[in-house]
TrEMBL record:
Domain Cupin type-1 intervals: 23-131
Cited SUPFAM superfamilies: RmlC-like cupins (SSF51182)
Highest taxon, organism lineage: Eukaryota
Membrane-traversing stretches: none
The name this protein goes by in its record: Cupin type-1 domain-containing protein
Amino acid sequence: MLKTAATNTDRHELLPNDTDWYYDFSQHRDFNNKVGSVITANAATFPALTGLGISYALLKLGPCSMLPPHFHQRAHNAVIGITGDTTSWMINENGVRTVKVDIIPYRMTIFPIGSMHVMQNNGKCRTFLLAL
């Protein structure tokens, strides 16, 4: 129904509660996972995002852990450091240099659509990153 809501008034009728308008990452079952987790707020987990074309993910990297090499084929990815010290490496396409960024609190980097990237937690504590 949210996909076909013609107006914001219609959206508010479908999302009538204040709790429909926020997503609490800390309430996800994997929030306290010691190894790490990726907790995603998207149209499936946070219906208020339906039709907006955005999603958010809280990445929690455990001590000395890595997010393996991967890419996103449908969207650009922006990552903002919240805590910790993480290093990212990104290759935009063949023949282009590898970009290395140290992601520290309040520093942001981007991974354009289709770019291969990886992240490593450099610290002894859990690192929190917010990805858009």
